[in-house]
Amino acid sequence: MANLGIPQNTIEVLQKYNFNFQKKFGQNFLIDTHVLDKIIASADVNKEDCVLEIGPGIGTMTQYLAENARKVIAVEIDKALIPILGDTLKEYDNVRVINEDILKVDIAALAKEENDGKPIKVVANLPYYITTPIIMGLFESHVPIHSITVMVQKEVADRMQVGPGTKDYGALSLAVQYYAKPEIVANVPPNCFMPRPNVGSAVIRLTKHQQPPVVVKDEKLMFRLIRASFNQRRKTLVNGLNNSPELNFSKEEITATLEKMGLSQTIRGEALDLQQFGQLSDLLWELHNK
Q1: Domain for residue 108, yes or no?
Q2: Tens digits of per-residue pLDDT, 187-199?
Q3: Phi (first) and psi of residue 142, to 5 degrees
Q4: 51 and 121 in contact (C-beta within 8 Å)?
Q5: In this structure, what is the dihedral angle of CA atoms 46, 47, 49, 53, given to the nearest 10 degrees?
Q6: Whether residues 178 and 229 fall in one domain
Q7: Nearest to 182 by CA among 228, 147, 217
Q8: Of 109, 108, 112, 114, which is closest to residue 94 (Cα–Cα)?
Q9: Digit-coded pLDDT (tens) for 51-63
Q10: Are 190 and 235 in contact (CB under 8 A)?
Q11: CATH code at 274?
Q12: 139-193 pLDDT, tens digit each
């Protein structure tokens, strides 16, 4: 089968099937062999691996994955692409295509079935409008995952890896860093895609922590605190937490807890790191669970 990383081959497939790009699915197909090689290398895919690919499109990266992995499970939401994938992947007997919305797929059951429940590797060129729900869904469902190597919008990749005190730092940075070690492995300009997106992209690899860097009494509470403190970024942490419908701590309790941590009551959420949010969460938890 022709290498779809070469633009001319992609164009031929699209013409053969009269394929129309669907804006609602955020479809931008990768047409750059160097970037594809880089993704496979960064994801460290080898013959032992079972890989989950989200949004295979016409099968461009799927071909590369199939050459390198033991098994590839490709989940594609657009049913118009299923016959195309049947054609572009017909030479590979180690690929399974599932026509489904990834947010509705039981990935743990797939890992059990295809990989004896051992951790899988996730590799994807993600639709930008749904990047965060997909990544957080993978982490929060505690599916057995080794790493997630994904193409995302450049500014989202930046947000995932920054620390406190920067404008990009927020709930996403903390959530990703709680579950994984983020590392941007390549910046990818718009001309590497068809059609061209309006924004720059980046490939980021998230290597899942064996143990989270902070151990808290109530993970859900910590994430409620994190969300509340960034929902109103310009407000002080005390006001942000006090205003949140998700939380029920009084101003006095929050102020006293910050004092106990040696933090000013005028501090903003963006100044706290993951360890401090963990500590804040445990102290507030103890107040209500004595």
Answers
A1: yes
A2: 999 999 998 888 9
A3: 50, 40
A4: yes
A5: 80
A6: no
A7: 147
A8: 114
A9: 999 999 999 999 9
A10: no
A11: 1.10.8.100
A12: 988 889 999 999 999 999 999 999 998 889 999 999 999 999 999 999 999 999 9
